[in-house]
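Chapter summary example.
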Amino acid sequence: MYLYIIFSVLSVLAILEVCRIKFKGLPLFYNYAYIFIISVIFLLSTLRWENGTDWASYFNYFNSVGKNLNTGYMEIGYTLLCYLGYNYLNYTLFLGIIGFLSIVPVAIRIKEYSHFPLLALLIWFSTSFAHMFPVRQTVAVSLFIFSWKYIQNRRLFPFICIIAAASTFHLPVLITLPIYFIWNKYIPAKIFISIILGLFFLSIISNNIFSNFFYSLGNIGNSYIEDKINAYMDNSDETFGSVYSPFQVLVRGCINRSFYFFLPLMLLNEKRKENSVMNAVFNMYFYSFSLFLIVTPLSMALGRLTSYTDISQLFLLPFLFTLKMNKKNTILIITIIVLYLSLRFNGVVSNYKDLYIPYHSVLFK
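The structure predicted for these 365 residues follows.
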């Protein structure tokens, strides 16, 4: 129930925001509402108990590493944080640190880059609960988003440093390194469409080319990378508790990504030349869409590689409302978006419903 309450409140706020409804005497209403919702999500993340995917394995790892650092097998940054958390804090405070690292950097960049932060927050919550249930990867995703400012300002060294730090939590974040080099590139829409269609048909017809490529990556990497890739590839039929099969994930993912990508592309294509951030977000989502089509047919686990760049979808749909349109069209478009997000949100909840609902708090365990 609590997830649906947050979604409903965010939906109302997002509609009011894009319709530019003002509240007399409260000029900063939307800023306060944004901070309040982020704070609620952070508190729920910190005070949860036995909620979220991989709770048992992460809790056991925390205790195991805390007692003996040599038992650690995950990335060094996360392992050391577990060790320090066990010996000097407790698991709830540890969850607070992980929640802060996973939520706050994204929230900062949303405020900085999105014209409609509450709508972006609604999209984030609809697709991943706004990192309310963080794991190692969400920390790495958040740090990657925080690095966008340095990509935008063409500061390679700080960008590399942040990605290096993120890799100590989740090594696959290295997949984001090409973003620095495509950020400012203008790629014509027909190239976007042609490559995505080509990859889609290849993913349906044959994935041998892609599988051979990933196995070759494992062979040229270090033993850790090789073991990770081989584990993902050798368990290509594993659904990891999801109610959807790999083929269903591919089809649903293509439908969802098409909504986020092609609709804004049709309406905003010309504005990409005038807005560097908008153009960069399109490039990033194109990269993410292409990566999804390559890796998902091979392994659902490999499909998680797209989580880093999928986050760019938070910014694509809000850009639509930078176009000049009358109130009627604004209400129509935001209504369609909210209805779509409600379906998407319900699907995300249903995927692992027993792990999210009901909410359990450390205060009442």
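To summarize the output: The chain has 19 helices and no strands.
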